[in-house]
Amino acid sequence: MPDTLLRHPFMSQSALMQCNVSALVEAMLAFELALAEVQEVRGAMPGGTSGAMRRVLEAHAFDHEALAAGVASGGNVAIPFVKQGRAALPDALKRYWHMGATSQDVVDSALMLLLQPRLAALDALLGRCRTAALALMQAHEQTVMVGRTLMQQALPTTFGVKVAHWAIGLEQARRRLAQVELPVQFGGAVGVHSGWDTLGLDFMDAIAQKLGLATPVLPWHTDRLPIHALGTALDAAAGAAEKLALDVALLTQTEVGEVAEPSAPGMGESSSMPHKRNPVRCAMIRGAARQVHGNTTVLLHAVAQPLERGLGEWHAEWSPLIDSALLLEGALEQAAVLLEGLEVHPEAMRRNLAATGGGIMAEPVSRLLAPVLGQDAAKRISAEAAETARHQGIPYAEALEEHAEVRGRIEAEALRQATDPALYLGSSQAQVHRAMAWLGE
């Protein structure tokens, strides 16, 4: 498959390098060696056994191609991995290898180990986004712009408020990811540590501590809520990043031009139109997020698994789970750069506020006129004056002042204030300050 051209570009390249076949093999080996160490400490094998295993297997080159071929016959990579590991050990150690474990213990624990550094990287990227957003919020808490509903001009808002919503979404996702636990898996064949009695739970807890993973209440072979929690948390973060990218992409449109992506050599160029500056970072974020959403659907459909071992559901989780983390990391790398270098154009925002001849202020004008002229007349006159202002290129307040039904009945200063977008921002500034305080907690 042409993954390097079609799928991998949406992922974090550094994460791809770290999260490869060798890393998975190392993670499986880390689980097996941790299992042997805790069993040795508790007298389940002779002293020195786990150390001897470590010396042999850490120097052993596992055959990756044979592992891949073995998945097709065994259904998971742990089976050929355990076989290769046992074959590499001297006869005196073979019986202590993989003792009391099952394939799912190895794979689930290895995936949790693979994801541990990815969650740390995601947290750092979301922290970068928060820092950049806070700077934008502070700089633009009073930068007036058009607020749009159903893709149409509605009422004034500020760019600071818009950034605050992006920042809150991303920070909520960061805090949710920070609460996700990556539990160790160890239950043996049917999840009850067969042959070990109460020692099994002791082994499980000790392995978790040694590997730096969370300790589950019980083995979770077919209780997949840990995967559900992780997958949906990744998806929430992808959604927050996608919201940022969608808004920025819409604001970069040529006719809008209120923001622009950070410039970089070759970034955003078209294959045929030299004049274009495409919002490529937004496209990459949204492309990655859409793939995460699809992966999450697979994970959600695999939550209910039969009896003591999933039949296809468990197997379906592996790739979507890892891919989602890599895709999200790629999206957040783009989001951090986007927020850190976003070009904001207040002059374009002012221009767009005037695009309707001031009609965006028709609602407060109508409220001003209604007590004097009546509700229906106020609504009609506010719209008529806006059209006059747009066609004649004059200020909205002047068009209102000259309207036959308004002339001399409303003070000019009152009309000026009612048509000034900067005076009709509601709680915008207070919202920015409140968001900044929350983000700083």
CATH topology grouping of the largest domain: Fumarase C, Chain A, domain 2
The oligomeric state is single chain
What portion of residues belong to β-strands? Answer: under 5%
Major beta-sheet overview: 2 strands, antiparallel
Q: Report how far the terminal alpha carbons are from each other.
A: 45 Å
Strands of the largest sheet, in order across it? 1-2
CATH superfamily of the largest domain: Fumarase/aspartase (Central domain)
For the secondary structure, the number of strands is: 4
> CATH top level of the largest domain?
Mainly Alpha
Helix content: 55-70%
Shape: elongated
How would you describe what is shown here?
With 441 residues, the chain is mainly α. The chain folds into 2 domains: 3-350, Fumarase/aspartase (Central domain) (Fumarase C, Chain A, domain 2); 351-439, Fumarase/aspartase (C-terminal domain) (Ribonucleotide Reductase Protein R1, domain 1, Orthogonal Bundle). Helix content is 63%, strand content 4%. Strands 1-2 form a two-stranded antiparallel sheet. Strands 3-4 form a two-stranded antiparallel ribbon. A hairpin with a 2-residue loop joins strand 1 and strand 2 (152-158). Helix 5 (64-74) crosses helix 6, helix 9 (159-179) packs antiparallel against helix 11 and helix 12 packs antiparallel against helix 13 (313-341). InterPro entries: AdenyloSucc_lyase_C, Fumarase/histidase_N, Fumarate_lyase_fam, Fumarate_lyase_N, L-Aspartase-like.
